[in-house]
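User: Could you go from structure to sequence for me? I need the amino acid at each position, not a summary. Structure tokens:
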């Protein structure tokens, strides 16, 4: 049977990202419709406000102008995640930090400057400073581009922070206007299954029975289709990733307040705090393990972090069920977004995995029910691998930390909390600097440079390979060039807020 009618259940960032990806793909197929069904009563979670650089290609592919996105979504530029106090304060000092930068160095610099840095025991510069000028730009509070750069182009790689609610609205308008996605506001009261276990129809409170051929579950934590109806099991990974709770709050800021061009991730005794600056507010989340800290202690510590800026703000508690579905595609249903699973938002994983999954889905979107079984196997294999490796990357931040000041940090180093693939990699990387061949699958969500910035930002102990005199001299030349590039970009690039103000007033050049 041909697939002619596709339903996306749930709005928010995940639903409307899926609607744009799928709507764009299916616009090429005659007689195929896409309908997004959104409850008028259930608000989106709305805390996914950080992205990775791939989002620029996604937005560009949707035909969304960068300046309009910035104007409509209170967006700011994100060039890094700055990790503060993720290492022992006695060894590295109070306020120790490292940057996970977005600008990817050349393969030559990645190899040789890392080798040089490991051998240079006297240097006071971080590994990131050796590899990229973006470290200096971030610390100077500068933007990654100029007003004269075209849409989605810059001097350095970047992503964004944005208002998640406004972002969903922008995506919704784009999907409906450009890709003919229909939008229905109604509550799904029951899911009707066929004899073969597929989803036959959705029963609603205001639209009656709605029949479709294929369903995308973007219903968030509720997981109405993949969980409630199809009973796909959930794989709990809380024995590896110990974070399971968050307090979130929006903090108003002044119009002339500086905007850091990075996400701030500050570690505490039982987790960490995200701090994301938009043009008019900060989104702050206190993420913790309630097995190592009480909710009352979490409130007190978030109060202390916010200080005078807390004023009369109230916190919203978000419990986290940490893990993912055993299958992401079952019968005629695919889960995306929070319906797929949830991990703490340490590396902007939620939107990253949603975008990654939706793109992969559209590469082989089924045109008939005869294709479902084969495509289901393909999708589940690829996405399962992506989720497992993402979990390993998040775990890396905890298990290689030299913090031992609380039970939480000690527990994260326990062998039984670390997967075998990650153990094998860490054992290898004690002897050898990571290379690209250590990441052999195209479904690695995080690659060599991501691992390098975290490993050596946290002073992972790799044996320093010998460095020839010629290599030594060449590295000195590269470091001198790096210093010159640092200064050139510092002189060239504008203040972050100043650029955002200019974009809002004048826009950017055409794509």
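Assistant: Here is the amino acid at each position, in order:
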């Amino acid at each position: 049977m041909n697939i002619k009618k596709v339903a996306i259940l749930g709005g928010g960032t995940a639903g409307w990202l899926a609607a744009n990806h799928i709507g764009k793909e299916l616009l090429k197929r005659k007689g195929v419709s896409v309908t997004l069904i959104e409850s008028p009563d259930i608000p989106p979670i709305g805390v996914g406000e950080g992205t990775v650089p791939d989002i620029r290609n996604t937005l560009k592919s949707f035909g969304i102008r960068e300046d309009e996105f910035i104007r409509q979504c209170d967006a700011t530029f994100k060039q890094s995640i700055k990790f503060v106090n993720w290492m022992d304060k006695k060894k590295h000092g109070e306020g120790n930090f490292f940057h996970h930068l977005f600008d990817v160095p050349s393969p030559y610099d990645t190899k040789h400057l890392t080798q040089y840095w490991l051998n240079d025991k006297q240097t006071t510069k971080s590994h990131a400073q050796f590899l990229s000028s973006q470290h200096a730009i971030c610390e100077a509070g500068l933007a990654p581009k100029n007003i004269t750069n075209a849409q989605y182009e810059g001097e350095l790689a970047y992503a964004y922070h944005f208002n998640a609610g406004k972002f969903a609205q922008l995506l919704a308008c784009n999907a409906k206007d450009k890709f003919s996605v229909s939008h229905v506001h109604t509550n799904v009261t029951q899911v009707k299954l066929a004899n073969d276990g597929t989803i036959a129809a959705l029963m609603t409170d205001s639209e009656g029975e709605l029949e479709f051929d294929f369903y995308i579950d973007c219903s968030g934590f509720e997981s109405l289709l993949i969980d409630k109806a199809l009973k796909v099991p959930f794989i709990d990974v809380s024995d590896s990733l110990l974070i399971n709770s968050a307090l979130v709050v929006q903090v108003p800021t002044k119009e002339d307040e500086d905007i850091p061009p990075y996400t701030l991730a500050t570690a505490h005794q039982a987790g960490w705090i995200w701090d994301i600056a938009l043009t008019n507010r900060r989104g702050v989340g206190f993420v913790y393990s309630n097995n190592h800290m009480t909710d009352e202690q979490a409130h007190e510590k978030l109060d202390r972090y916010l200080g005078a800026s807390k004023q009369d703000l109230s916190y919203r508690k978000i419990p986290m069920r940490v893990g993912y579905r055993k299958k992401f595609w079952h019968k005629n249903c695919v889960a995306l977004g929070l319906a797929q699973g949830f991990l703490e938002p340490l590396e902007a994983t939620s939107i990253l995995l949603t975008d990654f999954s939706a793109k992969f889905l559209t590469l082989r979107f089924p045109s008939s029910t005869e294709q479902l079984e084969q495509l289901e196997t393909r999708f589940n294999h690829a996405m399962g691998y992506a989720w497992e490796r993402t979990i390993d990357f998040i775990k890396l931040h905890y298990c290689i930390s030299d913090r031992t000041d609380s039970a939480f940090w000690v527990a994260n180093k326990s062998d039984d909390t670390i997967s075998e693939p990650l153990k094998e990699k860490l054992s290898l990387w004690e002897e050898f600097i990571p290379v690209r061949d250590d990441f052999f699958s195209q479904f690695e969500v995080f690659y060599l440079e991501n691992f390098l910035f975290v490993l050596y930002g946290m002073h992972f102990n790799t044996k320093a390979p010998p460095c020839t005199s010629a290599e030594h001299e060449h590295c000195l030349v590269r470091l001198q060039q790096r210093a010159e590039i640092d200064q050139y970009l510092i002189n060239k690039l504008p203040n972050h807020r100043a650029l955002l103000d200019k974009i809002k007033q004048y826009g950017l050049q055409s794509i």
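One structural detail worth keeping in mind: The radius of gyration is 23 Å.
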